[in-house]
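Hey there, shall we discuss this one?
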Amino acid sequence: MSTTTRDVAAVTSVLNELVAAWERHDADAYGELFTEDATYITYVGTFYQGRRDIVESHRTLFTTFLKGTKLADEVLAIRFHGPDVAVVNGRGDTFKNKSPRKLTKIQTYTLVRQDDGKWRIAAFHNTKRKPLMEAVSYRFAPGLIPAAGK
């Protein structure tokens, strides 16, 4: 299977649009980037199912806990599993004033190309990193150090 530069650009564009919608606190635009039946898992473990649930939860978040925040996002890897499925691993974080030096969350996005040709997020999972726990576990069990981290 060959991945084209256009496929990579299209997937990256969805993530850039996600960041822009967050910055505008536009829950509808944010939700439009997900499939109708998307799943969304927050770093605190909350599970949302479906675009409507994602939109409504973000409408609330943008006016409460995440009011005034921006989204920092870094793509670590994009892998294509067929012509219409991409898995993206990245780091991210929210911030208000200055962009964070270290992004504290690890994220996985699964994107699918839909019948209209648009790539949308079908699944998102966000996990808070615990660098101290990683360091301790690596010290006592070096076999846990991921190849990507060496």
Summary: The chain has one domain: 5-149. The chain has a mean pLDDT of 93. DSSP finds four helices and six strands in the chain. Residues 5-24 form the longest helix (20 residues).
